[in-house]
Amino acid sequence: MSRQHSSFTIVDADLSMADSITALEMACFFLPLSKRGVLRELRHSKTVFLAAVPVCGLNESERGTPTDVLGYLFYRQITDFADVGNLAVREDARQLGIGTALLAEMRQRCLGEGIRVVQLEVRETNLAARALYRSVGFVEVGRRPRYYLDTGETAILMDWTL
In degrees rounded to 5, what are phi and psi of residue 155? Predict the structure, then answer.
């Protein structure tokens, strides 16, 4: 399944994208997943891994290189709820609506699977991510003090009721 936007398409990520996703992990996170961790998530039966890839032409057949990942989101389906692992967008591709599009695609898929609540943790200081999550309907439901091992920073717990 893919959903095309003006400059990118949301697709199911696959193993060919592992290097690009790993590079994005390294660029975006203090404690990034290793390539092995990315591959583990791509292979996990309960993980849904979405990627935004560039569109080079006017139609799907002219889409950009599928391994050139602009952004991604993965989540695990756990009984009747989903838990977001990571969402990242390449710095030069921010403000194009990729994060919002990834979240919208996740919402549609979760609703199709009967999932009604999505959960995540976000760093307290990651104001851009928190604003994005609030803009689609996530609400703060708790805090985990000293959650992040690298800085001792608090994690903000957020839920999205679909």
Answer: -95, 135
121, 124, 147, 148: which one is catalytic?
121
Among 25, 41, 75, 133, the one annotated catalytic: 133
Between the CA of residue 26 and those of 20, 88, 107, what are the distances in Å?
10, 10, 26
121 part of the active site: yes
Longest Cα–Cα distance in the chain = 48
**109-136 confidence digits (pLDDT tens):** 999 999 999 999 999 999 999 999 999 9
132 is written with which tokens? 């994005």
Sheet holding 8-12, edge to edge: 3-4, 8-12, 47-54, 71-78, 81-89, 117-123, 155-161, 139-144
What are 48-106's pLDDT values in tens digits? 999 999 986 434 444 445 568 999 999 999 988 999 999 999 999 999 999 999 999 99
124 assigned to active site: no
3-state secondary structure (DSSP) of residue 24? helix
Residue 55, class by beta-carbon neighbours within 10 Å (0-12 exposed, 13-18 middle, 19+ buried)?
Answer: middle
